[in-house]
Each structure stands twice: as C-alpha cells, then as structure tokens.
C-alpha cells in the first residue's frame, strides 16, 4: 500500500463491547483499526477472542435499542456495542453493570409481576434473602450455550404452584421449542416438585425435547460472578 493510501486510512476507533444477555460482563475495550481489519468479519473474529465468547460473534448491536451494526464504518469512536452470535438481541441495561431492565408492572388488579433486585456483590449478602423469607436458584436454557442462566427468586412464605412456576419459566426462558414442560438438574434428573428445589443450585429449563447434557456451568458461569441479580416472583 502506498504512503498516500496509508495517510488516507480512517483513524482507529475505541469501542467497548458487551456479551449479549450477560448482565455481569463488564465489557471489553476493542480498537477498531481498519488497517488491521480489512473486513467486518475479521473484526468480529477479534471481538470473539477479546470477550471470550463461547461461540463465534457474528452480530453487533447498539446496547439501548438493539440496532444492528452492518459494517466497520458504522462503528463510532467511544461508543458501546453488544456482541452476539446468531441468537436474537437480549434487552438488558448493559451500560449500568449489575442491573437489568424491569420485566412487567403491577396493574390495578394486583397481577403478579417480576420485581427488580440489585446484584449482591458478595455471597454473604444472600443472608438478607433468608431474612426476607426467600431463596433463589439459577436456570439455564436446554441446549443453549449462548445465554447465561437467569436467576429466579422465590418466596418461602407463598406455596409454590408447580404449574405456575413452569408458566413463569416459559416466559423467562423463551425456549425455541416452546413452553417449559420440566425442570432438570445439571445431571439430567428431573425435578418433580418445588420442595426439591435447593437454594443456590443450578437447573435447566426443558421443553418437549430431551434434556441435552452440555457443560452449561463451565461455559456460562463466569468464575468471578457467583452472586446474581435476583428477581422475585409474588
């Protein structure tokens, strides 16, 4: 390339990239250098390595509205983006680490909703949950190694209706196969009732398909984020 061509090359841009659906990932700074990355695909490959994505990154989105970025020239210096594979963009509050968007509201008839809780930065803080008469578990989506587990906070004082819990899991999991019909432990054994749920344990939401034994915990649970954002179901 001639010296004139080098002089005319666009200046490097600095962007921050988050992992799609991961509210705990702090983001990684990536330099967009069009002298180094001749194609958008080459840049996405670099992002895959930089954020340690479990599968190849194939799409970038704006964090607030989920607008897809189509090419290198669309990236803006100093801006933030969300990296995803082929899965759909997951709406979270990426720019404020440790918080998620509210999921629904209570109407005048008192319909149940999901309530927002902040992240507990230390596992010792889970004692506050016990004081509130609550316990939590984390749920993976069957066969999905792209989405982190979603936390589920339950009240000890309210009788747990299994059908109602499955309906709630159906809304939260949004499985490609449809409704959640069963909940399994990581070894594949099925949970038959709420009394079998153990505080702090991990489970897998499964539809009509067979349970898929995959390394959910090893690939989707960062070592430095053992404590979770919690949501309460009333």
Features:
234 residues, alpha+beta, Ubiquitin-like (UB roll), 7-stranded mixed beta sheet, 5-stranded mixed beta sheet, 5 helices, 23% strand, elongated, Doublecortin_dom_sf, Doublecortin_dom, repeat, DCD2B protein
Q: Please tell me how large the radius of gyration is.
A: 20 Å
Overall, the morphology is: elongated
Strand content: 15-25%
Q: Average pLDDT value? A: 76
Q: Helicity range of the residues?
A: 10-25%
Cα end-to-end separation? 64 Å
CATH architecture of the domain at 134-220: Roll
Determine the number of helices (DSSP H or I, runs of at least 4 residues): 5
What is the β-strand count? 12
What does this molecule look like?
This protein has helices spanning 3-8, 40-50, 127-131, 162-173, 216-220; strands at residues 13-19, 28-32, 59-61, 68-69, 80-84, 114-116, 134-141, 150-155, 182-185, 190-191, 202-206, 231-233. The longest helix is centred in the C-terminal third of the chain and has 12 residues, at 162-173. Among the domains are: 13-84, Doublecortin domain (Ubiquitin-like (UB roll)), CATH 3.10.20; 134-220, Doublecortin domain (Ubiquitin-like (UB roll), Roll), CATH 3.10.20.230. 17% of the residues lie in helices and 23% in strands. Strands 6-12-8-7-11-9-10 form a seven-stranded mixed beta sheet. The protein has 234 residues and is α+β, with helices and mostly antiparallel strands. Residues 98-132 and 224-234 have low confidence and may be disordered.
